[in-house]
Write a structure and sequence with these properties.
OB fold (Dihydrolipoamide Acetyltransferase, E2P); 13 strands; 5 helices; globular
């Protein structure tokens, strides 16, 4: 499938997106053998907080309680479904105490799948997430109802530390990424999100 520049921006995709299936820890050796140097340097288009908010249905703070990898409905890829218990809805109208967040990648019975520029969610992790409603591709959801994906892949996740700082995971970018907020006090980030939410246009509905 070919993406135009606006579609890559919306999805947090680059001109190169890689999915790797690997047995256990063999991924390191496998990548060094089969991937050209350019693949390792693939990156995303940097998204500003304003852009992340514009593409989100909800921005939330919570704790990852459960992360379960499972096969997709078509059996061709591994998808991880996570239950996130919310402590705050920063923007949006999400009313549930818990939400389900899904992303490609994970490991089942020693067989793993890694997707470039996806930031996995770990049980026990405290996060701020930019979320968009998503049609689940997993064979079965953790619970019936709405499923979310992280906007901009890794760019839609901030890990929160005990000092009150929100930080994105490392990832490669195409271009300087000057508009991005990589690390800042979580209260500052939440206030910025609220201001962006007030002025944003309604997100384009996706089929």
């Amino acid at each position: 499938m070919t993406y135009n520049s606006s579609q890559r921006r919306e999805a947090g995709l680059t001109m190169k997106s890689f999915r790797f299936m690997f047995p256990g820890l063999a991924i390191v050796a496998l990548l060094s053998l089969v991937l050209p140097p350019a693949a390792a340097r693939a990156g995303m288009l940097g998204l500003s907080t304003d852009t992340l908010v514009a593409e989100s249905d909800a921005v939330v703070v919570g704790k990852v309680e459960d992360a379960r990898p499972k096969w997709s409905a078509d059996g061709k890829k591994i998808v991880t479904s996570c239950k996130v218990t919310l402590t705050e809805v920063v923007a949006g109208d999400e009313t549930n105490r818990t939400v389900e967040v899904e992303y490609e990648g994970g490991e089942i019975d020693g067989l793993g799948m890694k997707v470039s520029d996806v930031a996995p969610l770990a049980s026990g992790e405290r996060v701020l997430l930019f979320l968009a409603a998503h049609r689940s591709t997993a064979a079965a959801s953790l619970k019936p109802g709405k499923v979310y994906r992280m906007v901009g892949q890794a760019q839609g996740k901030y890990a929160l530390d005990d000092a009150g700082v929100a930080t994105k995971a490392p990832f490669s970018l195409i271009g300087p990424g000057d508009a991005m907020d990589r690390s800042l006090p979580v209260e500052n980030l939440k206030e910025k999100v609220r201001q962006c939410w007030k002025t944003r246009a309604a997100p384009i509905e996706k089929p």
